[in-house]
Design brief:
78 residues; elongated
């Protein structure tokens, strides 16, 4: 997979994780529609756990971005 696609996904995950960590109830409420409504309602009722998942998401996305290739092309070089 191209490094720019993976890095773009990491940037999205970082942004989502930051919003989740800072505003867990509000962020979940905004996404409490459609097929994922039940799970978002569950997370909305547990803001501490939701905040922890947001922080973990940011850490994971940063680790992913740090592991990427330094130049355009494949995300990871052998």
């Amino acid at each position: 997979m191209d490094v720019r696609i993976v890095e773009s996904l990491a940037m999205l995950a970082i942004g989502d994780g930051v919003l989740t960590a800072l505003f867990p109830e509000e962020h979940c409420a905004r996404w409490e529609a459609g097929p994922w409504a039940p799970i978002m309602g569950w997370f909305r009722q547990r803001p501490g756990l939701t905040r922890a998942f947001g922080v973990a998401q940011v850490v994971g996305a940063i680790a992913l971005a740090a592991s990427l290739s330094k130049s355009p092309g494949p995300a990871w070089r052998k």
